[in-house]
Amino acid sequence: MEPQVAMSDPVGDEDVVAACQRGDREAFRRLFELHKDRVYTVALYFFGGDEALAADVTQQVFLKLFTRIAQFRSEAEFATWLHRLTVNACVDERRKQRRLTQLDDADDALPFLPVSASHERRYARGEVAARVQAAVAELKPKLRVVVLLKYFEGLSYEEMARALGCSKGTVASRLNRGHKALAHRLAHLRAALLQGD
Amino acid sequence: MFRRHVITELAAYCQDELAPPAARRVAEHLLACARCRAEYEQIKLGVALARTLPMQQAPDTIWPQLEAALTAAASPDAPAAVAPKHAHAELRPRRRFALFATWPRAAAVTFAALACAAFLGGWLYLRPPAPAWDVARVTGTPRIGAERIGERGRLAVGEWLETDAHSRAQLSVARIGQVEVEPETRVRLVTTRATEHRLELARGTLHARIYAPPRLFFVDTPSAVAADLGCAYTLEVDDAGRSLLHVTSGWVALERAPRESYVPAGAACATAPGTGPGTPYFEDASDNFLNALDAFDFKQGGDDALNTVLAEARVRDTLTLWHLLPRVDAARRARVYERLAQLTPPPAGVTRAGVLQLDDDMLARWKDDLQDKWLHESFPAARKVWRRLWQ
User: Fold this and answer.
1) pLDDT above 70: residue B386
2) What is the pTM of this model?
């Protein structure tokens, strides 16, 4: 396995982080703007399209990030830190939701929760994307997380391994399994996908 | 060839994550291993599916609440201003996205909207560049758009690379191969993604060498699409939009509905606007054969041309005769069949009636049988490999 390092930090992260550590409120805002969509998107797909929950998790991630940023020392690891916060927030919120709704703990797969994403909106984004979103939400959380980190954070395998606290081989294996699971569940969309190309 | 299976590397391969030597090793293994190729097709579909998910925009309502929480956290009177470790739990608003009733909050929302607009501009400026391929100058001064490139450049999706009479360039096709661009050539990068890399050749000449599974690399020309099936080839397009393909290794498919020509190593195929791909032929055929085929394909040569093609055909030229079967009318098809069967009798289960009715399965079976003849005696190793790979 020889993965290449993918660029994950937007330009200027280091300077913005340093300004945040000095308490610069505008820098907070800038950092938020740089990363909010990716954090929100990961949370949105993690929770199967629940926009309110995704917004809540996004808020939690940045609040935690801003209140702890003064303690943060290694600018080079900022992206890893942010991704770890995002993953942890999703997993924590999922646990909380499961307690609240008394879901069956033995089942690893989170049910699709189309709370506020109406059928109309999801189909407006494209039927294929809507079905993929549903299939992603049905992946086991550990597979779901690597797929989302790959596509919306653009992380290399090494960065994902650091963020998730596992080996690169584990990341590769989970991505293989995640993609195969998507292909298996949505094999009937192959033709539609090719037509879309 | 079967050093070890590459299943664990397939997602990385599909996502262009492997370094060139590893990507080449995986590509070569995929050509030879049906098991890994089946896995690859699955994962490639999974990647294509995952890529349909769009990035979503976070709601504007998050920042005002976050800012209010930060302000509260900074206040010495705030109960939430405790150890940061637990700050978010204390400060998290009870209600999600509550409307702001008071004027300071309304002002904050207005400020937030203006700031969002400013940062949207910033994002547009800072966003990651479009996918692009590396371009290396070989000679002269190739241009990307109106800009001359130095020793190296980047060709982004949608951009044209152009060479004049004295310049040449080399393109890196993601990590799956190279394309050399000859003088007086105009080529555009149409798309580049894990499941498809596509160029448009408007005029001129390119040489492609691709190390990838079939149907990953395509070149659009004015009169056909060249689909790579794991190969090296030269493609020329003239100012009238006619093109000529020479294949030096592997196979290339030339496509323009309803025609499709499979061109193996050592063979060539011409195309013309309005006609699409002509009939493929081996370049070592007789001059009479080649002239007659050109007349039949593109100059309405009719029966005279067809008679010459049939009379001059060798065993190896069954490549041409097999392609002619669906392209001629019933009367001519019977004559083509007779000559083809004379040169190489059809395999068991392939009947005259079935071929004349263009039975897809029978045509495919006869083609499989004929491929040994097409992969010439001078390429015995290639013939063995192709038999192992695709049959």
Assistant:
1) no
2) 0.52
